[in-house]
Amino acid sequence: MHKVKTRTDLSIENACSLFILNSNSRTDKLFWKLSCVAIEKQTALWKQQDSMEKLIIANAQYTTIDALLLMHDGTTCIAGARDRTLVYWKLPSREKLPSHEIGNSVCIDSAHNGWIWDLTAIDNTIYSCSWDQSVKSWMLINTGLVQQRTYEMSVPGALLCVSSCPERALFATGSYSRTIFVFDSRSGHKPIRQYRPHTGAVIKLAMNAEYILSASEDKTVSVWDQRAGRTMKSITISGEAFPMCMSMQQDWVCVGDSNAKLHVLNPKNDFELVKSYSTEHTKGITGVHLTHGCLITSSTDGTVRISSPTDPPKPIATLLSGFGEIASMDYLNGILAISGIDIAVWRPKSTCSTKHQ
């Protein structure tokens, strides 16, 4: 018996065919065919609301939670807030979940002397940055978090972002004073490099073994070549808005801005700005994550939008936070987490439908 293709199936097939036709090699064509399968799976997953469960972590911290990190295949959640607390949760297994409320947590009061603004990790070590001009490292153990080191920056103003490259054991932090500091986690408390590529505050960082990308209030994204030790390029994303978040993958970089637009850079072509898209968000984009199966964006408008990773992106589903503005988002192993005054987590009810998508 032949399956009748729905309008959604056809739109995905047609959208994917744009990439297949533009690909020159068999490898590229196979990649995009596999991507089409991933898109179909993600579309089915997010459109069927009973296939996902939503967990709420309520009243864990008393102020906005700006820093959010998923670890261990999405089973562990770390959050840092403006009340200076750092909180660790082990998300309950599906069998042990009695309700949609999660209460068990380990909280570190006064983890910093200022608002905690961003988090990253290298293996089981978490790095938190704060308005107190410091980065602190924490070892994640079964019972919670143990502080290891404090990295203090000799600059005025807050540290607004932190990112890491586990492959090279490096992490970097960006500051309100426009300076970016790079550290080797295996060595001492001093940065191995610092540079100032912007004329405005550094809002977000993304890094891999080769490059560090920084987004700034000066409306540019700067590309730092780690091997050459210099700024390779500065890209003006928009004359009207500033970049707020980034997702860097091997083939594409997605940048979300303060006017709810999404911009795509091609790292294989000197980070050329390929295209810009309007989204259905009504306020700035605070989080973006690109996978083979879907494109996820969060916003201060209180919504998460799931779209197809196609040209142009096609809307799949819209999720409501339930608590208003979304300050941060993370996605790992098919599990989505967002934060604002509370934390919400969506995960598939089936364990076999999301890995690597």
Distinctive features:
2 helices; four-stranded antiparallel β-sheet; WD40_rpt; disordered N terminus; 46% strand; mainly beta; WD40/YVTN_repeat-like_dom_sf; Methylamine Dehydrogenase, Chain H; WD repeat; 11% helix; 357 residues; WD40_repeat_dom_sf; F-box/WD repeat-containing protein 9-like isoform X2
| Total number of beta strands | 28
CATH architecture, by name, is 7 Propeller
CATH topology: Methylamine Dehydrogenase, Chain H
Average residue-wise pLDDT: 88
Query: How many structural domains does the protein architecture include?
Result: 1
Assess the beta-strand content as a share of residues: over 45%
Radius of gyration: 20 Å
Low confidence ranges: 1-24
Write out the CATH superfamily name. Answer: YVTN repeat-like/Quinoprotein amine dehydrogenase
What's the SSE pattern? HHEEEEEEEEEEEEEEEEEEEEEEEEEEEE
3D shape: globular
First-to-last CA distance: 29 Å
Helix content: 10-25%
Oligomer: single chain
Main sheet?
4 strands, antiparallel
The CATH class: Mainly Beta
Would you mind describing this structure in some detail?
The chain has one domain (36-92, 103-348): Methylamine Dehydrogenase, Chain H (7 Propeller). With 357 residues, it is mainly β. β12 (180-184) and β13 form a beta hairpin. It has helices spanning 7-22, 26-47, and strands at residues 52-57, 65-71, 76-81, 86-90, 106-108, 116-122, 125-130, 134-141, 144-152, 159-165, 170-175, 180-184, 193-195, 202-207, 211-216, 220-225, 230-236, 243-248, 253-257, 261-266, 272-278, 285-290, 295-299, 303-307, 315-320, 328-332, 335-339, 343-348. The chain is built from 2 helices and 28 strands. InterPro entries: WD40/YVTN_repeat-like_dom_sf (IPR015943), WD40_repeat_dom_sf (IPR036322), WD40_rpt (IPR001680).
